[in-house]
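[job 4471] stage=fold_predict status=RUNNING
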Amino acid sequence: MSDTTATLENLRFPEQELPEHVAGTRAFGWWGMVWLIATEATLFAALIASYFYLRFQYGTVWPPGDIAIPTLQLPIVMSVILLSSSIPVHFAESAIKKGKVGGLKLGLAIGFILGVAFLAITFGIEWPEKLGEFTPRTNVYGSLFYTILGFHAAHVIVGLAMNLWAQVRAWKGAFDRDRHLTIQNFTMYWHFVDVVWVFVFSTIYLSPHL
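[job 4471] inference complete, writing structure tokens
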């Protein structure tokens, strides 16, 4: 063996000293998602606070004008669909932590379908019905209604894109028992989207009935 070969074999590269598998609170990516969620939660809190501030400033009649109080039947169906999507997503994360790639793929696929169904009802039924009654330019209520719901729908779309990307990587064999930080981050984000919907639903659809 030449001196050059021996030198190369004994040479230590910085990459080799890094941990192979990093997940959870040890990963910078995990903390990045935590701070992203905290930032987005602040934005939602500001929108909801603006809703109630303007509502109480506007007067006793809410919604104002000739806008009817929102019905609850369809929004409840939407809520059940979206909130139930967290179950297969949680199942997917639990499965890959046990090394079950098949369970990961199945959970992500079901969660994706439920998320798409939520958006399909939102943009295909709920919004067209409301646009026939009022638009974002009608009054302050219309602006708040579409801004808050639109902001949440945008987050659902981002979550579905993350889900799709995770599915592609899962089929390429990118995840196993030790490597699943992407799944952890997506799961956190999706649960956040679902929890925020509870506050959005309570604000937009329930509060006018009180």
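[job 4471] summary: The two ends are 84 Å apart (CA to CA).
[job 4471] exit 0
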